[in-house]
């Protein structure tokens, strides 16, 4: 089937480095060409943001990223009137800009946003693809190249903070996890400058710590933290110090758990 929209040729742009885990790149491209919104779910630091940056560059689209939080209102996304030299002027928010430009709007940690935000997203994420701006009286029709991408970490979800079925069922969804072992080594080595051989035992340790998720730890060591660790070691920090500062301290404040993690690290890296 012929795609509805044509992507910019890859060679024309410098793509942010991204190693795919599976078919997520073609799924993203297909969702975009079919004008379907996309939901990415997965643990912190596993590559969701990098993936969106990579795909936006690949498709040659402007990217507007918003980190959602519990004070974020619909007006923060759509826009508001501002006072400028005695006049009130309308200023588009990032969602409105993305719709007008036909770019990508990426809402990170969408479950943190307030409920009125979903009211704005609903008409934009079904076949109407419209963004009503009550304040200006406009009703924007999203151009074909506009895409809404949202992400969240299911690990942090509570009953109070979850997406309503009527919201989540508007999205094509992709689950993210940490890359397969050898791919993750390649990513950490490439991002930190440490050799693959030196990264290997760090990743082995990370895998052991990830196995503790749900027991003693809320979240396992992310690819992001592994890159921090490898970068410190590449800069000359002794491995034990680097591991403590990046793969243990950020994970827990509990002294007993910390001690247990130090033991696991010693046994793994010995
Ligand atoms: N598949 C990948 N290809 C290339 N780099 C990756 C990949 N996965 C992770 N990384 C690296 O890990 C870092 C963290 O990833 P990223 O910021 O995309 O995580 P995230 O899933 O968006 O996390 P959060 O949920 O905390 O926002 C990136 O800056 C990048 O260096
Ligand atoms: Mg992110």
From TrEMBL:
Q: Which InterPro entries would you find in this protein's record? A: ATPase_dyneun-rel_AAA (IPR011704), CbbQ/NirQ/NorQ/GpvN (IPR050764), CbbQ_C (IPR013615), P-loop_NTPase (IPR027417)
Keyword Cell inner membrane in the entry? The reply is: no
Q: Does the keyword ATP-binding apply?
A: yes
Q: Which family does it belong to?
A: Belongs to the CbbQ/NirQ/NorQ/GpvN family.
Instruction: List the Pfam families.
Output: AAA_5 (PF07728), CbbQ_C (PF08406)
UniProt keyword list: ATP-binding, Nucleotide-binding
State the organism's lineage.
Answer: Bacteria, Pseudomonadati, Pseudomonadota, Alphaproteobacteria, Hyphomicrobiales
Question: Domain named CbbQ/NirQ/NorQ C-terminal: which ranges?
Answer: 184-267
Domain ATPase dynein-related AAA spans what residues?
Answer: 37-171
Its name, as the record gives it, is: Nitric oxide reductase NorQ protein
Q: GO MF annotations for this entry? A: ATP binding; ATP hydrolysis activity
What stretches pass through the bilayer?
Answer: none
């Amino acid at each position: 089937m012929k795609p509805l929209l044509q992507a910019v040729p890859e060679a024309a742009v410098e793509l942010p480095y991204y190693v795919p885990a599976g078919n997520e790149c073609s799924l993203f491209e297909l969702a975009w060409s079919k004008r379907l919104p996309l939901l990415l779910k997965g643990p912190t630091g596993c590559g969701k943001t990098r993936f969106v940056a990579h795909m936006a560059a690949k498709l040659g689209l402007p990217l507007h990223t918003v980190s959602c939080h519990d004070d974020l209102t619909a007006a923060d996304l759509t826009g508001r009137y501002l006072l400028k030299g005695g006049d009130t002027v309308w200023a588009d928010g990032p969602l409105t800009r993305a719709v007008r430009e036909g770019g990508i709007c990426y809402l990170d940690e969408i479950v943190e946003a307030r409920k009125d935000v979903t009211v704005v997203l609903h008409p934009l994420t079904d076949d109407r693809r419209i963004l009503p701006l009550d304040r200006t009286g406009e009703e924007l029709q999203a151009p074909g190249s506009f895409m809404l991408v949202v992400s969240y970490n299911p690990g942090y979800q509570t009953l109070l903070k979850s997406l309503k079925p009527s919201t989540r069922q508007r999205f094509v969804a992709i689950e993210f996890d940490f890359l397969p072992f050898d791919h993750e080594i390649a990513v950490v080595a490439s991002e930190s400058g440490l050799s693959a051989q030196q990264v290997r035992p760090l990743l082995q340790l990370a895998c052991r710590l990830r196995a503790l998720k749900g027991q003693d730890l809320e979240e396992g060591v992310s690819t992001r933290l592994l890159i921090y660790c490898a970068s410190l070691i590449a800069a000359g920090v002794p491995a034990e110090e680097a591991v403590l500062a990046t793969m243990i301290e950020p994970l827990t404040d509990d002294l007993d758990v910390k001690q247990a993690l130090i033991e696991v690290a010693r046994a793994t890296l010995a």
